[in-house]
Fold this sequence. Notes:
Layout: E1 6-14, H1 18-36, E2 39-44, H2 48-55, H3 61-68, E3 72-77, H4 90-100, E4 105-111, H5 114-119, H6 124-127, E5 131-137, E6 147-150, E7 153-156, H7 162-177, E8 182-187, H8 193-209, E9 214-219, H9 220-229, E10 236-239, H10 241-252, E11 264-266, E12 273-274, H11 293-306, H12 310-325, H13 339-358
Parallel strand pairs: 1-2, 1-3, 3-12, 5-10, 8-9, 8-10
Antiparallel strand pairs: 4-5, 4-11, 6-7, 11-12
Helix pairs in contact: 1-11, 1-13, 2-4, 7-8, 9-10, 11-12, 12-13
The structure holds nicotinamide-adenine-dinucleotide, 3-isopropylmalic acid (IPM) and magnesium ion (MG).
Amino acid sequence: MTAPQTFNIVVLPGDGVGPEVIAAAQGVLNTVGDFYGHRFTFEEHLIGGAAIDATGDPLPPETTAACLASHGVLLGAVGGPKWDGGPRRPEEGLLGIRKAMGLFANLRPLQVSPVLAHRSPLKKEIVEGVDLIVFRELTGGVYFGEKTRTADRATDLCEYTVGEIERVTRAAFRTALNRRGKVTSVDKANVMETSRLWREVVTRIHAEEFPQVQLEHALVDSMAMHLIRRPRDYDVILTENMFGDILSDEISVLGGSIGLLPSASLGSSGPGLFEPIHGSAPDIAGQDLANPVGAILSAALMLRHGLGLEDEASSIEAAVAAVLAAGAVTADLGGALGTRAAGAAIIDAIRAIHWAAAHRVQMHWG
Length: 366
Ligand SMILES: NC(=O)c1ccc[n+]([C@@H]2O[C@H](COP(=O)([O-])OP(=O)(O)OC[C@H]3O[C@@H](n4cnc5c(N)ncnc54)[C@H](O)[C@@H]3O)[C@@H](O)[C@H]2O)c1
Ligand SMILES: CC(C)[C@H](C(=O)O)[C@@H](O)C(=O)O
Ligand SMILES: [Mg+2]
């Protein structure tokens, strides 16, 4: 257990369901802090549509400065129809903060327990036991290439440098060494020049630095199919920015809901940014319907990858697993709980797990 510390966390609730799920994650962090003696101070800043409304800028300079000076950043979501067609887009704020913080590796893990397999729209025997992690390159590719627009023509440049590919590739291989030792690199090398460079670099880094890891290459179109047909075959999935965005939403279906998936965005130094993979969900925003688990598990990833608090992170994950097993879930998973009640159930589970540990009692859930 780590000695008690104080951590300055920047929270960027953003838009739509963002503030709802971030409130739940803050409640969980406060509870974990109480048990382990840590203090989390939360400094709230504007991003996305909320920032456009208040300042005209989706990423005000104060937000960037606060994030860079923090121990970690917890983000809800940005975007929504309110800002469609406007002069500034909320998503610019998200892309801007990722770039400004140098967050080139976006980790999106998914484990499908028997309980989640039961709730998945896919067959239980296909998804039960899935344990994979997507390494999505986050600050390059078509997202950040030059864009042009005339009345009858638009372009988005897709660009990657060797250095950009190397750093995320190394991060993925290092993670594979501590898992099942397999990396699947996903590209579109039959069509795209950036993908051919991607494949060459990944192949070289593998041969020179990580020959003990099993490497396979896959084309993104058939990979989208394999992920639904035989997802248990995959361990670490390494891919570029846009393919990773699309495949990770697809993968979320294996576990039953996009509301479950967390992510960690990391650079080579400095604080990380932690956010659920889902968006602002305008269709359910403001109704206490959003699943807070993705945001709460993102807080756990912040404790593990950002603050070095492994026991504390594991205690959140154990509580989430217990609550899912007990069926205390939101409507997206077929349950009756609202966002606040689902967050409160996870807080209760953390308390129960600590009480049981203190009294050496075995807990039985479900
Ligand atoms: N990281 C981010 O901030 C982020 C990510 C994705 C999309 N967006 C933005 O969000 C807006 C809406 O995008 P979208 O509708 O394509 O994707 P979305 O992820 O917001 O929603 C897709 C579907 O999943 C559901 N959903 C999402 N999160 C949920 C949760 N926590 N619990 C239960 N159900 C949930 C929604 O209700 C919706 O039906 C867009 O403006 C988009 O740019 C932001
Ligand atoms: C909102 C959008 C810019 C963002 C992305 O494409 O990276 C989102 O879809 C995500 O997955 O975080
Ligand atoms: Mg996305």
